[in-house]
């Protein structure tokens, strides 16, 4: 006999983000917020740096590339 289980519904998050998936976490102080939340974002020397608004730790750093060409289909 094959056992199948019904999918478990997602629990809403306590902060009410309604299903957002892109969440950043500060490894130093535990601050969490959506990617477009309260993070301090600066571009310095061609790198986009995301810092925690609470403890100022660097959470993410990515190289910024130039404008991407738009391709017509």
From TrEMBL:
Domain DUF8106: 20-62
Domain of life: Archaea
Region (Disordered): 1-22
InterPro entries noted in UniProt: DUF8106 (IPR058419)
A Pfam family it matches: DUF8106
Protein name listed in UniProt: DUF8106 domain-containing protein
Source species: Haloplanus ruber
């Amino acid at each position: 006999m094959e056992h199948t289980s019904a999918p478990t519904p997602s629990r809403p998050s306590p902060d009410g983000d309604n299903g957002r998936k892109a969440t950043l976490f500060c490894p130093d102080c535990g601050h969490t917020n959506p990617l477009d939340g309260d993070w301090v974002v600066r571009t310095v020397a061609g790198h986009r740096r995301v810092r925690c608004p609470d403890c100022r730790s660097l959470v993410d750093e990515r190289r910024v590339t130039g404008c991407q060409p738009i391709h017509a289909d």
